TrEMBL record:
Region (Disordered), start-end ranges: 78-104
Domain of life where this protein originates: Bacteria
Organism: Dactylococcopsis salina (strain PCC 8305) (Myxobactron salinum)
TM helices/strands, residue ranges: 12-34, 54-71
Name of the protein in its database record: Uncharacterized protein
């Protein structure tokens, strides 16, 4: 329950520098180009030029903060993408390895089956003791290893 609330605050705080920068830029422009003749409430500011300069410095600081926030966000995004790419590559490598092992097992089974077929054919063509013993040895091998 705490995690979504934290994410909302992080999203809000990440928007704050750029929003504050926009407001400060508007305030600087407002103080530079207008005076109390245009807007009567500007009479409360004794030296609009000095206030504008201070707001300009504040806007520069906020711009640096906004740059830092964006830099951090992009670094986190790049790291996330690299981790995702590495994970996908690992999965593909594991899949290739499993496929290679399966091909190796299938080839081994085929060799064993071919050996058994050859021994049966030899025994049928020439039913002597040597071929019979080879066939019995092969049957013992199959019973022992279950293939």
């Amino acid at each position: 329950m705490e995690l979504p609330q934290r994410k909302i605050w992080l999203n809000f705080l990440s928007l704050l520098p750029s929003t504050l920068l926009s407001v400060l830029t508007i305030a600087v422009a407002f103080l530079r180009f207008y005076d109390q003749e245009d807007f009567t409430f500007l009479a409360i500011i004794e030296q609009p030029r000095e206030a504008s300069n201070r707001l300009t410095v504040a806007a520069l600081v906020v711009a640096l903060v906004a740059f830092g926030v964006e830099w951090d966000r992009r670094n986190r995004e790049t790291a996330r993408q690299e981790a995702e790419t590495a994970r996908a590559e690992n999965e593909r490598a594991e899949e290739r390895e499993r496929a290679a092992e399966e091909r190796e097992r299938a080839a081994r089974r085929a060799r064993i089956q071919n050996r058994g077929t050859i021994l049966q054919i030899r025994y049928q063509i020439e039913p002597n003791e040597a071929n019979g013993q080879a066939l019995r040895d092969f049957l013992a091998f199959l019973q022992e290893y279950g293939e």
